[in-house]
Amino acid sequence: MSRLGPLTAALAVTTALGAGVLAITQSGPFAPAEASASLGLPEYLAPELRAKVERLKADVAAAPTSGTNVEDRIWVFWDWVNAYALQGWPIHPELTSTVSRITQPAGVAGRTSPRLQPSYEAVDMWVREMSLREENPKAIGPLTSPHVGPFEIFSYQTLEQVYTVGERPLVPGDGFLVATRMYGALYDLQRDDPKADNYLSIRSSNPQVKFANETLQVSGMFSGQLGGNNPRPFFRITEGTLAPGDTVTIVMGDKAAGSKGLKMPGTQSTGLRYRVWLQLAEENILFDLPEIPFETVGATTAGVRGFVPSIAARGEPFTLAVRAEDAYRNRATSGMPAWTVRLGDTVIAEIPAGGEAITEIEGVTLSEPGAYQFDIVSADGKIRGKTNAVLVEDAPASRIYWGETHGHSGFAEGMGTVDGYYTFGRDDARLDFLTMSEHDLWMDDYEWEQLRAATKRYYEDGKYITFLGHEWTVSADDGGHHNILFRTPDGRKRVARQVYPTKAEMQAGVRELHDPNDVVVIPHAHNPGNWWNSDTEIERFVEIVSNHGTFEWLGRAFLAEGAQIGFLGGSDDHIGHPGLRPVRESPGSDNFGGLAAIYAPEKTGDAIFDSIRARSGYATNGMRIVLRANLNGSSMGERAASAEARTLEAHVVGSAPIEEIVIVKNGREVKTFDYTAAPFAQARQLELRFWSDTDAPDRESTSRSWRRWAGTVALEGARVSAAYAPKNENVLTESAGLEDGAVAFSLRTRGAYKGVVMDVDGLTQAGKVTVTTRGQGNFTHTFNLADLVEDGEETFVSPIDDYKDTVTLRTIALPSAIEQRISWTDDGTARDGDVYFIRVLQTDGGIAWSSPFWVGGTSAER
Fold this sequence. Notes:
The chain is of the alpha+beta class. It is built from eleven helices and 57 strands. It folds into six domains: 47-135, no CATH class; 139-297, Sandwich (Immunoglobulin-like), CATH 2.60.40; 305-393, Sandwich (Immunoglobulin-like), CATH 2.60.40; 399-622, Metal-dependent hydrolases (TIM Barrel, Alpha-Beta Barrel), CATH 3.20.20.140; 625-675 and 822-835 and 845-862; 676-814, no CATH class.
């Protein structure tokens, strides 16, 4: 990263990352810096626990675990697992989730259920595995790689993982399983065609050893999917013996016979993972060999974006950061052009070509109050970008701090490393605060300590605030997903689902283990947190938007139950990119993400956490939209005094032009400020809006998933000169344009609308627009343009299952203003307890939601 003052020309040259050799001999998805000491440990258990563990070993050897004896065994096993993991010894990644399955209420009620038998068998296998490692720590050898990267995205590479045989020789029947991560490699390995892409092979240092190509049915996070069985490549030894010190090399992307190699995914990562497992047939153990994190980096420069504070005082120096990125929002690694940073016609800085991807321009000042947005342009004018807007005020009492409370890495089913996650949030996404909320479903005590250490390591008052946290992960019928954040990292215990498996138990566990003033619990929506069982002393916000979609319905559901709770966004990113989601090939990345905007007087941990506790903040779907608002002088998240007259005022500064501002009262839209409406006679654009609901069908179900809209639009009585989708998030999976004279589109919606805008000439009232779709809920519908003359829009309901999705045709004129102010007085019926919130929509699909305002009544906080 380089730093500049305004109009400073000198820049440091990017330092190239070199190739590395990596050997890992301990557990956990960590970068090399996080590795613990090698195996071979002294006694690590307290005498009382050691006695219980030895009894457990004997019991398992005498009789398998079953529904009749699991209660006597599972908690000894759980305590042993965590003590064992704290030494850095590997444990199976599905072990912790298997314990969760056994300790869930459904498991307790049905101990003898056949569906739990595989879990009991797995526990016995892990008892044998841990016993073997205790008896002979050198039985299993290390896994290494001669080259871990960096590799450019979408390039073809050969990745080798080399197992050195430990003191336990490998004999016929033993073998190696290879599996990808579900969020990592998008391309399955294959062994059928050595000339085709992604060819997988194996070799050993002993030419007498032969392998058979087989498959094993596996499930879970290491199989490439979360549920169901998945056949994965397995190499079984059929002849020969591998002695201690021999090597086995697994080659992913073997090019020897003409294959191009293994195709890298399209996202930069410090932890791309292809897991290797060792099966010992005699012991009936499938050993997890510690993962090797390979590194991928971005490609050539194709775009640029800038970051500035959202609130600044007049004359106050601030930093403007410029980030060059490839076509997929990764940090660019080549082709850095010269940049000019402008504010209107004024040049703020010149950045010479060939520098680093991220440049900081320090000491920028603005002398007059108002809203400002900077332009960034390459020397040839072909690449253009903007910063977010900065609102300059005379003496701001509070600032807006942007953060993520919901993100993941390779700790669980994702990809990336802890260090990669925190550095990306700080350097690439320019976040003010960040939590890494890994799933407790896949977490042990060792990983919790790693998170605690990283939280402390990256924390820096005034610059970068990191909060310790985790995601409490249960199904919707047991309480849904909730993120748990802590004010400080020291002395914090996770409120783990293995011990606290229902929402009521989790709420009690927070109080049992912590002062509620130091904890915030945030339910979220795609696996919805129980809105009818909200403890708002600890639940201060609900997450209503993420990369999974837009779930305003859940916020409304909490409010309908009387909960005094704020709204925020969190991306739920699983690839180590908090705050700035990449464009990915896989569907499911078709929503921008989510951010939390928190008002606080200063950038310190206590100030931001106090503001979170006070519900002083709002949600966006990833765009940095400035939203200041009050109702009768009370700020968002507050309860105003009882009053008949209610005036709601808002000042909005977008990162793109503002399309509309909507006021919602008691769950109903009561006022819309529309900045796109155009009279029919003056209209030069038509917009088709596609929208699908996301409500959960009942209290025990997840939110409704995506709806795909794909088809064509035919216009009679006018000519379409261009068609595009300005709210299209993912250019790899969504599109809109002219094909053979007709408009073709393919979009996906989940709770927020996406539109196709058509530039048109010669609109007449006799014209017609016919929409034909294929895929989900096929239909053909014709809009008569005459119906748009009076109101400017017409809506068609497209029912599917029990939902009533809509398609709306509108006459519009896209606005250009990024700043709007509104003042609205409610002339409707006023009741104590009324609740209001504001929704802001930008032309590029950016959305912001204020936290609610309450008037009169009493809080449901309990």
